[in-house]
Design goal:
With 78 residues, the chain is of the alpha+beta class. It has one helix and two strands. The chain has a two-stranded antiparallel ribbon. It starts with 11 loop residues before the first strand and ends in a 9-residue tail after the last helix.
Length: 78
């Protein structure tokens, strides 16, 4: 006789953010951050979204900060 296997899938929440930063001299840098997480047993989808969104937003700010506070490159003179 065959074996019965039950597959349980959980709800999953994903958030992605991106930012393009002008670094001067017609150059820019693009930073993308994405994070996914299963909905935990003690959470609902809204709670999970808030947790994932806060993490993603904070991580984007951390990665972007050095470029946003750095002096802009100046155009090279010929």
């Amino acid at each position: 006789m065959g074996e019965v296997v039950k597959h349980i899938t959980r709800d999953r929440v994903s958030v992605s953010y991106g930012r393009t930063i002008n670094i001067g001299n017609f150059e820019s840098i693009k930073i993308d951050v994405g994070y996914s997480s299963d909905v935990r047993k003690e959470e609902n989808e809204v709670d999970t979204f808030k947790r994932v969104e806060e993490f993603s937003s904070k991580k984007l700010e951390e990665l972007a900060a050095p470029f946003e506070s750095a002096p802009k490159k100046k155009k090279k003179e010929k």
